[in-house]
Amino acid sequence: MITFEEAKTRLEVVGQSHLLRFWPELSELEKSRFLGELSELNIKELEDHCRGATKAAFGQQTSLQDGLHREMEPVPPEFIGGVKRSDKNTLDDWENEGILQISRNKVAVLLLAGGQGTRLGVPYPKGMYSVGLPSKKTLYQIQAERIRKVQELAAGKHGSKCTVPWYIMTSEFTLDPTEKFFRENHHFGLDPGNVVMFEQRMVPAVGFDGKLLLEQKGKIAMAPDGNGGLYRALVDNQVLEDMEKRGVEYLHVYCVDNILVKMADPVFIGFCVRKGADCGAKVVEKAYPEEPVGVVCQVGGVYQVVEYSEVLPETAKLRGAAGELVYSAGNICNHFFTRDFLRSVTQHFQGELKQHVALKKVPFMDEEGNLVKPSKPNGIKMEKYVFDVFQFSKKFVVFEVPREEEFSPLKNADGAALDTPTTARRSLLAQHYRWALAAGATFLDHQGAPLPPEPCRTSQDEDPPVVCEISPLVSYFGEGLEQLLKDKAITCPFILDEVEAEKLLKN
Known about the structure:
Low-confidence stretches: 60-65
Number of helices: 16
Largest sheet: 8 strands, mixed
Helix content: 25-40%
Number of strands: 24
Shape: globular
Distance between the termini: 69 Å
Radius of gyration: 25 Å
Oligomer: single chain
Mean pLDDT: 92
């Protein structure tokens, strides 16, 4: 650990000596902790970070070159697969390949869970959030149970016990509460040894004047380095080495907030493996040209995600011969990587990842030592994005899935127009309602009269006709329900969990 004088000298060199203005007011313990934090700062990196943040925030560098629209090209058809683009035999073949790889213990999932539930109005990690399902299950529990079920499906088909390790990348803010939540819930039935949590790095928040902000009198305001911080965190925590010991070759990476995510999706895994891909992205078809989602495409022959704000309106509206949007591959942060590809990224390309600017409201200590909670953005946070490694892929593929079946993110508190607890809950219950109808179930109203089926209902604007929740422990993605529900008359609300499934089998 450095001394106070050493810290003062180092900070003066990069114009950040203001960080020590409250030093005399700190206790000995606070001084020791603060010096420990300052010791970890790389002064050259800090100087570059502050300079880069202010330049980027105030438009002194452009994120993409002028004339982007002239270099954009859609993903070639031969590199796109999808649920609606492929026949049943092909989809079954991909699923069988994915199940085979899972049965051989070659597949893991990695959750990007560094964010807090601030926009939801809660002080805990987003994965701990319950959207109000009849079962009261949280996002973490739903995802854990999907892992258990896909392990069971693979083991049942190939006659051997198998494991899908669950790697969870947290941040300084979310690691402790996440670990505690999993312990208190007995890891939702998973072997604790197969749930591996690790922490991404934090980077300092920078004020608009290029000065670092203090969160406390003896603590710098820090923020996670974005989901692209994954690649550095893999090295810091020796995660790839852990994967190699377990025999993991393929990784499914996703964000915590998608309530419909298919954990270790065998179809997606199988598609990527059969195509010989080292990197792949799940996408949904854009709902309309101006939809604010990034687009997976090529720019100058290199794969990347182009943010919606960077695409000219006339480019976004381009349509093909059949009337489809040319740039329709909406990014949903759902990816496939081989372990070898991740190793290559961490060894050779990590330093080339682009820095993205986020203007945030960062609580800070003013010159008098008062904590200020700003009402408008006052700080610059620099982030990296997980998808910025597409450009380094030697064989990149895209897999398109139906939005109503696989994508309903939870980002905002109720009252917002989109991506709320209510829309997430409706999406999941509507999906389960469709599954039950497809399995041959009949739903009854309060008077016991049969309700007419409405199989196409997928709107997030209203609740499904009935409340029907199906546990992932009963069905991973709608399979196996016919033997339980065919010709059954069901009164709602209906929760099909393992206990109810046993009752239905006996009847």
